[in-house]
Amino acid sequence: MRRASAGARICPMISPQWLCFMKFFDESSPFYGYSACCFTGHRPQGLPQNDTAAMKLLRLGLMEAVQLAAAGGVTRFSAGGARGFDMLAAEAVLLLRQRESLPLSLFLELPSPRQPEGWPASERQRYEHILAEADGYRYASFRNDATAMLARNRRLVERSDCCIVYLARPSGGTFYTVNYALSRGLFVYQLAERLRP
Questions:
Q1: Of residues 160, 18, 6, 197, the one with CA closest to residue 103
Q2: Which end of the chain lies in a sparser environment, N or C, as judged by fewer CB atoms within 10 Å?
Q3: Considering the entire predicted model, what is its pTM?
Q4: 36-41 sheet: strands from edge to edge
Q5: What angle do helix axes 85-100 and 121-133 make, rounded to 10 degrees?
Q6: Phi/psi at 69 (5° precision)
Q7: Distance CA 1, CA 17 (A)
Q8: What is the pLDDT of residues 94-149, one digit of tens each?
Q9: How far apart are CA 25 and CA 171, in angstroms?
Q10: How far is the C-alpha of 177 from the C-alpha of 12, rounded, in Å?
Q11: pLDDT tens digits, one per residue of 68-89
């Protein structure tokens, strides 16, 4: 999908809360003209440690990115449900939807129903909460293998016109997904670069 032409657009999901929050989308937002955003980023080992200033900055930057996307017109967000950045992103959308009463939807593209097998109990609990609060989810496969994860990553990109990413190293599934998004002409908003000191 290509960026919409200039001019204010009214949200296609008009609601009183949305109109009170903003009458028109913010044309200065880098997300202006886009409607569907996916997330991709590293697993916990590729992110700052919990309870550090760097992790707090990442969470804040992610919330600001989602707000910026919503201000530009994005109403549909998709995440892959993996531990790490995917879960942080999904929680940011759900928090903003609840706190600001924004008409945001969250869809999960999951590799398989077996994705959370072997996770710590606290992570499985977070995953189940996100699944329960999401507007929908679907599985790429019934096997939890590299092929299913690749299919999940491709589906995320193919159903989006922009992407919020946290790419701190040029390798792995996040690197592949970012390159796939760029090859399909998606606008990529790179959080890791924006958060560097």
A1: 18
A2: C
A3: 0.86
A4: 136-139, 105-110, 76-79, 36-41, 162-166, 187-190
A5: 50
A6: -65, -45
A7: 28
A8: 999 999 888 899 999 999 999 999 999 999 999 999 999 999 999 999 998 999 99
A9: 35
A10: 28
A11: 999 999 999 999 999 999 999 9
